[in-house]
Amino acid sequence: MNKKLFKTIGFFLLFAVIGGVIGYFIGLFLKDMEAIDQVNWWPILLSIPLAYLFVIAWHELGHAFAGVQVGFDWKMYVVGPFLWEKKNENWQFSWNKQTNLGGGLVVALPTTEERIADRFQCFSLGGPIASLVGSLLFIFPSFFVSPTWKFFFIILSFFHGLIFLVTAIPFRAGGFFSDGMRFLRLRKGNPVRDLEAEFLRLITLTQHGVRPKDWPGHSIDSMIKQAKKLSDPYLVYLYSYAFYHTLDGGDFELAEQHLENYIQLKDDLPESFQSMVWLDASYFQAFAMKNGEKAETFFQQFKEIPFIPKSYILATQAEMAWANGNEEEFELYKQLALEKMSQMMDKSMANALTFRLSQPRT
Known about the structure:
It is a single chain. The chain is an alpha+beta fold. The protein contains 14 helices and 6 strands. The chain folds into 2 domains: 32-67 and 110-185, no CATH class; 193-358, Serine Threonine Protein Phosphatase 5, Tetratricopeptide repeat. The longest helix is centred in the first third of the chain and has 30 residues, at 2-31. It has helices at 2-31, 41-69, 116-137, 147-168, 179-185, 191-207, 217-230, 235-249, 252-264, 275-287, 292-301, 310-323, 327-340, 347-358, and strands spanning 73-79, 82-87, 90-95, 104-109, 172-173, 176-177. The strands form 2 sheets. The chain has a 4-stranded antiparallel β-sheet with strand order 3-2-1-4. The protein has a two-stranded antiparallel ribbon with strand order 5-6.
């Protein structure tokens, strides 16, 4: 009862603070209504898109900073149309063409299992805390500048506050969890915390290059059962990992079952990542079933995006060429895939693909 009362008071105070912040902004506008005539609005209006990108960049840097502080490996940074990805320890720029990632994204992955749930909680909070700090920080210059700059800083501070609210409120949309929801899923006492922690432990194996066949199959099966019991959206990811595990282990029949479940639940994935399903299906048909025609059918449904490794796409095309009896084309795609394999974020998959491509073919 005391815990419930404490939580109720905590939520009441949180929303009281939020209401106070919003009221403060409204008060600033009303207080300076007489200064509106002195404002040059064109620079402010033209700067709004840049201000939006700035607050998104600030928020995502909060995640990145928190991730680095808890020992995560920072892999990707997305701000609106801009995307930076670390490949071979070097940051490379490309354009983000996915509109539903038009906000921002940071990918930072754990490399050790120590206190993994608590560390990921810190990573989740990094963004909202940065936005809250930004909202408070950028309001101060508005007291010391001209009316035009004053309203610019008020708008900038408001955007930071808005991002804080949007990300701190617990919800799930478009296949993504908000930062607030991610934090609550990892809180102690939540049955989902154990599922999240075990899944994060599995991710650490991918960063150390452990072949999928050597992943703990019993742990993956246990997570699938738990996700079903909790009706948790992580189930689609777990079927994908079960597919990689059994495929690499040579159990093609079971791999196909996991793949079918994976395809059925693809709508639970963020829209940007759903294309990966068709690449996985195409690779399976080409490599495991040696069915080039069916592999081509799946491959035609696949859409290339920056988040899917080029090496995996090339490896799939190599296997399709082999399944269709085109050895020359196989060798071409094989060499191209192997050249880019070191850039693959998932080191487990990179090792598995490299091994398969390097085996003698008869």
